[in-house]
Design a protein that fits this description.
With 237 residues, this protein is of the alpha/beta class. 41% of the residues lie in helices and 15% in strands.
Length: 237
């Protein structure tokens, strides 16, 4: 009986070690790319200029990320022929969802964009989701590809002493209103990993296409070859 009980604790220990490794790799990824972003000076216009005939893409970063954090993804999409638009007025995306959606909606109108695919990370996906509930903005959006987006919030948000992060907790009024706005989310593809240390409940969005990938992490998922190939596929169709 005692021998039969051993595999349980062993498996639990292995899962713990595996998740700890994912957490360390996740923070190594975010620190490395935040450092890189601080030294980059490429103008955002370069992602639109000399693009091919691909559909326009709007890139939305997550909280405390600027668009430069997603610059490697932006360059990949630009090289595939897409004009890639970034909304620099979002800054580090510490504003409310409504304020951020206002900024993106204004950009879409100002640039006369239509048939847009929004590729978003984390909180950026919530901003894109909010835009689907606004008639003018929604009419301009073809698809939303949301990577590691806490559509139902994250219970860990209450542990962070910053209002912008606490606003991502389950039950926050912004998330409650978002879930009840009745927007058609059939154009949303939600992608997340088998283990996200920041969103333990996963990123499934009822009514959307939900894809749980065999990669761990909240940030390093952005560099996963499998996820990048999937983004290529979703933005080319």
């Amino acid at each position: 009986m005692e021998e039969n009980a051993r595999p349980g604790p062993v498996r639990a220990a292995l899962r713990f070690v595996r998740k700890a490794g994912v957490l360390l790799a996740d923070y190594e990824y975010v620190l490395r790319h935040q450092l890189r972003a601080n030294f980059e000076r490429d103008p955002p216009e370069a992602l639109v200029d000399e693009a091919g005939e691909g559909a326009p893409i709007v890139l939305l970063p997550g909280i405390y990320e600027t668009w430069r954090f997603l610059h490697p993804l932006a360059r990949r999409l630009h090289a595939a022929g897409h004009p890639v638009h970034v909304v620099t007025s979002l800054g580090h995306l510490g504003m409310s969802l409504a304020e951020a959606a206002d900024q993106v909606e204004h950009y879409l109108r100002e640039q006369h964009l239509s048939g847009v695919t929004i590729v978003a990370h984390s909180k950026g996906g919530l901003v894109a989701r909010l835009l689907l509930g606004r008639p003018d903005a929604s009419a301009r959006i073809r698809r939303v590809v949301a990577i590691a987006t806490p559509f139902s919030g994250s219970p860990l948000a209450v542990l962070v002493p910053f209002p912008a992060v606490r606003a991502l907790r389950p039950g926050h009024p912004e998330l409650v209103r978002l879930a009840a706005d009745g927007a058609d989310v059939g154009r949303v593809v939600s992608i997340w990993g088998w283990y996200d240390p920041h969103i333990p409940g996963g990123c499934a969005l009822p009514g959307a296409r939900n894809l749980r990938m065999p990669v761990g992490g909240h940030f390093r998922i952005l560099g996963s070859p499998a996820v990048l190939a999937l983004v290529d596929e979703l933005t080319s169709g």
